[in-house]
Amino acid sequence: MDVKSNCCLCEQPLPPRHRKYCERCSAKASLLWKRQERQGNRGAAYWLDHWLKLTGDLSAARREYNAYMRSYMRAYRLRRRTRRRERNRLEVTGSITGLAFAH
After folding, report:
1. What is the maximal distance between C-alpha atoms in the chain?
2. Cα–Cα–Cα angle for 32, 36, 41, nearest 5°?
């Protein structure tokens, strides 16, 4: 009795020895399942679980999480700004070496 089934996420046929998810979708499915489990167990602020383990207090966990995200986004915006400036500089000069085009 050979029953073929499809992946629950991408609907592609499953390879042998797979029950629900293909190779590509299995990691994503695991991530989604873990997120749902944390959300069900902790309530609305499930993303603070790690910070709560470190600090022991919910308000301190929120402060630590917010401080981390602030510093992360500052660094991200700085990287993005410098990349954009470098890309614009290359577009203006017309080459990587910095030599301008003669008009």
Report:
1. 75
2. 150
**Judging by beta carbons within 10 Å of its beta carbon (0-12, 13-18, 19+), is residue 21 exposed, middle or buried?**
middle
Angle CA(18)–CA(19)–CA(20) in degrees, nearest 5? Answer: 110
53 and 44 Cβ atoms separated by less than 8 Å: no
**Cα dihedral sign for 30, 32, 34, 40?**
negative
Beta-ladder partners of 43: none
Average pLDDT score, the chain: 80
Per-residue model confidence as pLDDT tens digits over 48-89: 878 888 998 989 999 999 999 999 999 999 999 999 999 888
CA–CA dist 5, 12 (Å, integer): 8
